[in-house]
Design a protein that fits this description.
alpha+beta, 28% helix, 36% strand
Length: 180
């Protein structure tokens, strides 16, 4: 079992998790950033700037990582898509990670009404690519020389999952979804 808690920087009971979020973030930030990133040393910027930032806990209420959505496409009445970023503690890797990913994706589609969730991954980050694929994401494309990382041109692989993965009969295409 896993639990997602929406992080609110004003909730004092959640502030005790900032050191755990920072430690997890610092361990994996090399997989999250290019040379242009504003957030390299300040994880609270992620929390403050991502409208949806969740802490992930296991059934014993142990911190297992975090996930957030940002770069939304849509308007005030319709969220079409968002980008997903996540970091897990090593103790969470494997079955827990795959299980919590599926729970989270359904939650995001249900609660936010998204049609599409994207994962942008440096090709060297094979663990996340495998997690995305096992969670229903499909590889869409590689953005060639999309950014600079460690002073070198860097490709970015794009993976996506659509609402239809969970609601095959409900949504036939984007036009039908938008009418609802």
């Amino acid at each position: 079992m896993c639990k997602f808690v929406l992080f609110d920087i004003k909730d004092e009971s959640l502030l005790r998790y900032i050191p755990k979020v920072e430690a997890c973030y610092k361990r994996y930030c090399k997989y999250l950033h290019d040379d242009f990133s504003d957030f390299k040393d300040n994880v609270t910027s992620y929390i403050s700037n991502a409208p949806y930032f969740w802490l992930i806990f296991n059934s014993d209420n142990e911190f297992m990582g975090f996930v957030f959505l940002d770069n939304f496409v849509g308007n005030d009445s319709y969220n079409y898509s968002a980008e997903l970023t996540t970091c897990f503690e090593p103790a969470a890797w494997g079955v827990f990670t795959r299980y919590s990913a599926k729970i989270f994706l359904k939650k995001a589609f249900d609660e936010l009404g998204l049609y599409k969730i994207k994962g942008l991954v440096f090709p060297q980050n094979y663990r996340i690519s495998m997690l995305l694929k096992s969670s229903g994401f499909e590889y869409e494309t590689t953005l060639k020389n999309e950014t600079v990382r460690n002073n070198k041109l860097q490709n970015i692989d794009v993976y996506s999952i659509y609402r239809t993965y969970y609601y095959k009969d409900e949504v036939k295409n984007e036009q039908n979804f938008r009418k609802k």
